[in-house]
């Protein structure tokens, strides 16, 4: 696993937008699958000691993923994602909102735009997150920055293990 991979995280409060660029030491197919298949997302998409659990996922335009991040004591924090655009292996977009266990979303959410590219077996993922509410963005930002960095590290380790098999 390479240690000099790019990780860039920038916040533009005026635009209510977060820009993340992250490189992975793996091919595009493997990284794309890690972001678009529930069984793989559940292996990395929660900061330890939490874990992710997808209740259902339909990765199609108009489809949804409903999942929870679960703490060690069993507390669940649900989120609902709706896929708004998919261009296989290069881009997908979704609308994300926290929700209750009955899939009722909170009023303010965020629009996520993922772009993927590969060069020399390094896959670069660009993520743009537009938040509907500046207050929501500021409320969750510090925890999000730390938690998201931890989840991406989880993915690094999963990809490294996948390459060894």
TrEMBL record:
Which Pfam families does this entry report, sorted A to Z? AHSA1
Record domain Activator of Hsp90 ATPase homologue 1/2-like C-terminal: where: 27-159
Q: Which InterPro entries match?
A: ASHA1/2-like_C, START-like_dom_sf
Superkingdom classification of source: Bacteria
Q: Which family does it belong to?
A: Belongs to the AHA1 family.
* Name of the protein in its database record: SRPBCC domain-containing protein
Q: Which organism is it from?
A: Mucilaginibacter celer
